[in-house]
Amino acid sequence: MTPMTLTRPELETDYTLSRSDIRHFAEHGFVKLKNVLSAETIAEYEPEITGKVIELNTQHLPLEERDTYGKAFLQVSNLWQDSERVLEFVSSPRLARIAAQLLGVQSVRLYHDQALYKESGGGVTPWHADQYYWPFTTDRCVTIWAPLQDTPMEMGPLSFAAGSQTFEFGRDLPISDESERVLQQALAEQNFTEVSEPYELGEVSYHLGWTFHHAPPNTTDIPRRVMTVIYVDAAMEISEPVNANQVADLATWMPGNQPGETISSPLNPVLY
């Protein structure tokens, strides 16, 4: 029996969310869940994901020559299009069902995946909200942040401003030095609690598109390897883009779709 026959079924089985998990997500805009992935499953898929990041990465400047965004992480998207093994991970009914339950919707689609690898010495990921980049008509979209190793504070785990999903100030800011400075002050003034904790192996988080978050630098000598998948309500309609990033996202991740339509491109299959 190969390892794949042991690990793939885990990605197809249900994960039991508690009422408190669902309540926490609704109230705070994020939730961290333990034991979503076993060590065996992570060990099975991490080498393929990491290999694809190395193969497809287009960032070749030394860290010290990059801007703040470039120092934050290596970002490689839609790995599922280049690897059947990654497709198995990204299309997991287990992970997608959790997203649907947290969002309170019947069905979710894939928006896209992103590997986010914070290199040794990689800098801060500035405060931001993901949905700044996405032309969606509602807030029913969520990102799973799945570390592929234990992630202590020194490695730069994701930190959240609890409850900030309803805070509209700063939603027009892309990831930048400005967003880090302006939002750090604004979120503190509004008394949003910053939840900054390590991640155990197998622990993942889900956060809404409008939940503000950031991450500290990676001061270890090991890359922080994280796989993310973005899910949207399967009935999500596309809004008119309000910035250049949303124009690019519409063309890249929803090819052939137009504002006012329900997402339906071949890149956005229903996963649950």
UniProtKB/TrEMBL annotation:
It comes from the Bacteria. Signal peptide: none annotated. Transmembrane segments: none annotated. It holds the Pfam family PhyH. This is Ectoine hydroxylase-related dioxygenase (Phytanoyl-CoA dioxygenase family). It comes from Kribbella karoonensis. The lineage of its organism: Bacteria, Bacillati, Actinomycetota, Actinomycetes, Propionibacteriales.
